[in-house]
Design goal:
Length: about 90
């Protein structure tokens, strides 16, 4: 699972060819022991995330939605993903 961004203790990942489970483009986020899946617009799809970190992830996703969509296309085609800048 390629890590595409890290910020504020949050790790953002996108899996290759991960189209079956949610039937929509998404990414995975991990913070400590919590893991969740988010749509590219930052909507929580499944899993758990502390409130504050969830808000950071939502804001980050909105800022980088186009880059996330480009990475999703690369992932679906099993092509190397690029890093996306985190929140500062």
């Amino acid at each position: 699972m390629p890590t595409i961004s890290m910020f504020l203790g949050i790790i953002i990942m996108m899996f290759y060819d991960d189209t079956g489970k949610h039937n929509r483009p998404h990414f995975h986020a991990k913070y400590g022991d919590e893991e969740a899946q988010f749509a590219l617009d930052g909507t929580l799809l499944s899993g758990e995330m502390p409130f504050r970190q969830k808000k950071f992830i939502e804001a980050w996703a909105l800022l980088h939605e186009e880059e996330l969509a480009a990475n999703w296309e690369l992932a679906v085609n099993n092509t190397a993903l690029f890093r996306i800048e985190g929140l500062k």
